[in-house]
Amino acid sequence: MATLILTAVGTIVGGPIGGAIGAMAGQAIDRELFGPGPRQGPRLRELALQTSSYGSEIPHLFGTMRVAGSVIWATDLIETRDREGGGKGAPDTIRYSYAASFAVLLSARPIVGVGRIWADGKLLRGAGGDFAARTSFRLNLGSEDQAPDPLIASAVGPARATAMRGQAYAVFEGLALADFGNRIPSLTFEVQADDAAVDPAAIAAAIGGGGVAAGEPMAPRLGGFSAYGGSRRAVLETLAKTGGGWFGAEGDHVTLRSGAGPARGLADAGLGGGRGVRRIAPADQAPRSVTVGHYDAARDYQAGLQRATRPGAGWREQHVELPAVLSAGEAKQVAASMLTRIDADRRRRRVACGWEGLTIAPGDRVRVAGEETLWRVGGWSLEAMAVELDLVPVALATATALADPGTVVAAPDRPRGRTVIVAAELPPLGEGLATQPQLIVVAGGTETGWRGAALMMSTDSGTSWSIAATLPTGGVVGSVVVPPGAAPAAIEDRGGSLTVELANDAMILSGADAAAMDGGANLAMVGEELIQFGAAEPAGPRRWRLSRLWRGRRGTEAATGTHRAGEGFALLSAPSAVVVPIARPIGTRLLLAPASVGDGDELRPVEVVLTGASVAPPSPVHVRAARRPDGGLDLRWIRRSRAGWQWSDRIDVPLAEERERYRVEVDTASGGTRSAATEGPALSLESDALSVRVMQIGTHAASPARPIMLED
User: Fold this and answer.
1) 242 exposure class (CB count in 10 Å sphere: 0-12, 13-18, 19+)
2) pLDDT tens digit string along 628-663?
3) Residue 26 to residues 1, 21, 101, 217: CA-CA distances in angstroms?
4) pTM as predicted
């Protein structure tokens, strides 16, 4: 009779969970607690390597989970070739890069969104939505009006591209594979399937196929849950076992119940053979400890394990893998509550009652007259004109337990921001000589997570672009807020100052003493001038006031009076200062633009003009004019060299050019201009000269002019 009734209860829900409900309403929970079950439930395997096997299980996700998903579609590798000029006498270089487009199925039910994404364990996309590698990303949430993805439809044809309604999947278009060994990396996704933590009873109703109603709330609420396994019954059993729940009939459905609640009162009539029949299993039949495996959000959803133990007899251990997101304390509470319930379930109570027992269904809560214990009906039978109920005590959950999730080294999630580049043609920073124009480029990011960029260059006003260099290391970059005024380069500028605003809050500047500055400390690019500073003081958010300036370093004194607000500032230090050779003639206008995952698809170009400053000698110094008796002038000057900044022998500097040549431009009293050439640092002039400009002719370019006004 009992079998018939329990089978009828099971057939209410139908499908693969029908038999499970009937069994759990009877004796299946007892067998699950005191013996191994025959079915394979869900396991902690969602962070395993990503698969693309046909027929793989796709989980129903609830709450927020980290899952690997399954690759359901992919293109062949997309190869791109970029040709880079090798300069004088050097062959061109061809650089190959690879990308791939593919789709990953995430959940068999709709989701709300996706947060972080990991590739080979490293953060590919942060919580802010910025990617560490260049890609186009689309997320299909699984709505009922979901359309086929346009990329997949264009590749396989509209007739074969399914909309996959009710299933959530992500599409990567053109994911750059350089950081992953030119292969599709193993991805895991932080999937937000619901807006908040989920009640286990609501999960049971969602996967019950219409046969399970949303019953009484259960604790604890799960931060996330992955429903998969051999059958729906296995998932429901896992939820019931770990949450202290059981199933009961209610109308044409069954509900998942737990804890205290409304109870029927009944009297033990003692019909058919005795009153107050009780039994209790030996203590050693219950597990001595229970361990619960779970996912811990505090550890980036890595698997955790919490254990609860009891004193007394016994040696058995029970392990439960719960594919749910729980904190360490919640998992500890689940383990302790399970241990308490298992120990309480050793007790059994049989009640014999009259025909009123026909209205009591398996799973109902009851209280026996004269007793305080709250029971639930685990079995029902009709024998000898008496209704006998097998009762199981209802054990309440234990108090909140304390547990430590341990330490995890999580991938840093910092926004990358956009790239800021500062570039100019300047004299080489080392002692070597440049044989072709070269730029000094320093890059940084507006956020602390900036991780490098490619430097794109155009020589035809932006019509075409090519990769000029890679900027892998971030430097200290910003812009000028208050420019310095003109000042001599021969002495320290103690009256002037410079205020700059840096690109992000993590960038800082510090002072240096004279000895350190003489060794090259605090060398900065400010527009087209090289400046060193001895003092740096904070002047507001990201702003610094620089003073004790050494101006016009390495022959850049011609730019001391050209500064303006908004021009670039960069601290020149290895390895952030990247030297970019440019195989173009002097006078060429270049467009430079950074390209990184934080910069988007639109280039933001910066114009740089090749002036020859990197290959030209510095202008002569100490120009002197002496009046001759006939009224003419004798000019004298001292040359400088682009190879003699250290003046090592204290006598003369090396020429560093193929030959010594100078050009002198003379403005005359009649308003005309004439020029003269000389191969030594001296020249005699006519008496009508008003002003003179002296420049050294180098192998590759002429130096800036050194002017002198002549007195009468």
Assistant:
1) buried
2) 888 888 999 998 998 877 776 667 788 889 999 999
3) 12, 9, 52, 22
4) 0.71
